[in-house]
Write a structure and sequence with these properties.
The chain is an alpha+beta fold. Helix 3 runs antiparallel to helix 4 and helix 4 crosses helix 6.
């Protein structure tokens, strides 16, 4: 069954680039692209999953046939940006249960910010991913979106949205929501993000596509990492 994913074309093109480089270095152990893979559609179907599985087997990764954390760490750029986004991508599809309850598996994110279930969790998801990546210096109230904006501004962590890079934190709609930049061209009018507490089930970890004007602040991930 094909899975809808607005970032699927970028993931498949990243796999294509990786496989081409791999095949040049390993002519006797090729990662063969199956027939039926269409990198341009926002779906991950059976042919793409077979392709991912072949890449995972070649790289001695767990063969899950998914763009999971270990796979994304291979496909994304090295360094902290790729590390953070590999963690975030691995959570895609996690959602509230019952729908609209702010409960279920996502309570794990809320626990990181000192809350139980039942609270909005977009900022908790961001905090959880950053903590998993070793970030220690975060706002005093990381569960509250305005806390991120005010705190980042006071420490010189903000930069123009047009200069966003993978893994930077995007604050949407003047402190109403926060997520990650998952965009390869932040200067155009489309903003691709990876957010929690949006989409199906009343809230899930999902890929989003909005207009770039809706992003009202950008927190530089590298500067955040450098805080002492």
């Amino acid at each position: 069954m094909a899975v809808q994913d607005v970032s699927a074309p970028r993931k498949k093109y990243a796999l294509k680039k990786f496989a081409e480089a791999w095949n040049k270095k390993n002519p006797g152990h090729l990662i063969v692209r199956p027939d039926g893979v269409n990198p341009d559609v926002t779906l991950i179907g059976d042919p793409a999953r077979v392709w991912v599985g072949r890449m995972q087997a070649a790289c001695h990764l767990p063969v899950t046939h998914k763009f999971d954390r270990a796979t994304m760490q291979k496909l994304l750029p090295p360094g902290i940006r790729g590390q953070v986004m590999a963690i975030a991508h691995a959570e895609l599809g996690e959602h509230e249960w019952p729908p609209g309850s702010n409960m279920g598996e996502i309570v794990e994110y809320l626990h990181v910010v000192g809350l139980s279930g039942g609270y909005p969790w977009c900022a908790a998801f961001v905090t959880w991913c950053l903590r998993k990546s070793g970030f220690t210096h975060l706002p005093p109230n990381p569960a509250y979106v305005p806390s991120w904006d005010d705190w980042a501004q006071s420490r010189g962590l903000l930069k123009p949205v047009s200069e966003s890079r993978l893994g930077d934190l995007w604050i949407w709609w003047k402190n109403q929501h926060i997520g990650f930049c998952d965009d390869t061209n932040p200067e155009d009018w489309i903003a691709y993000g990876l957010d929690g507490n949006v989409g199906s089930y009343g809230g899930s970890v999902t890929q989003v596509r909005r207009t770039s004007q809706e992003v009202t602040a950008c927190v530089d991930l590298l500067k955040l990492r450098e805080l002492k």
